[in-house]
Design brief:
This protein is mainly alpha-helical. The chain contains three helices and no strands.
């Protein structure tokens, strides 16, 4: 199992996209999947998941 190393730049970027209202579900799924060395699903359309959540 890999260990996730969170840098200061990652924290800033994460905070910025969260503040802008982007859907964080995909990013959280990737963050959970990569350290476990599992294969990401190819059928995920990244841009559809990253769109802003309507108010």
């Amino acid at each position: 199992m890999l260990e996730l190393e969170v840098t200061g730049q990652f924290r800033k970027d994460y905070k910025r996209i969260k503040k802008r209202g982007y859907n964080m579900e995909l990013l959280e799924r990737v963050i959970d999947t990569l350290p476990a060395e599992k294969i990401l699903i190819d059928s995920i359309n990244f841009w559809n998941y990253l769109r802003k959540i309507p108010d």
